[in-house]
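Q: What does the predicted 3D structure of DUF2514 domain-containing protein look like?
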Amino acid sequence: MIDALLAPFYKWIILVLLLFMTGYVWYCNSLAGDLRNAETACDVSVAKTIKPYEDAIDQAQKEKATIMQTWSAKIIEVEQNAIKKIQDANAAARSADLAAIGLSKQLSEANKRLSTAPKEIIIEYTVTNSELLETCTAEYRGMAEKADGHAIDAMRLSESWPEEIALR
């Protein structure tokens, strides 16, 4: 019964269904195009948003490399200066040691001859005692050398430490 009623309209029903499906496909393609456009706009927006951060990271890395290079150069310079000062201090210490050894030998000789010594020898012994005071002075110099070494180490650390401006 329904077949008998709809039989004359089959062609029209099929035509309407084809038009409906064509319209639906066109609408789906339109939505797909809108989606592609939205994705492109989103990608552009994300790229614009990320760009300042990427630039800031690049700039920070360049600044870091510059600071590290500056610090390395400063440390090398400070180390070279410290090595030179240590070499100078060591040379002064060797010189003082040689002088002290010579004075010790002289005092040893004078002590051996003092009991039987004439007046001139006793005078020489007095002079040697004066030289003994110089030996004490040399010991003082040795202590000063150690203090200088400590001061050099402290200065090296102080000069190697990054300046507050470089840390900003």
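A (community wiki): The structure tokens above were generated from the sequence. The CA atoms of residues 13 and 22 lie 14 Å apart. DSSP finds four helices and no strands in the chain.
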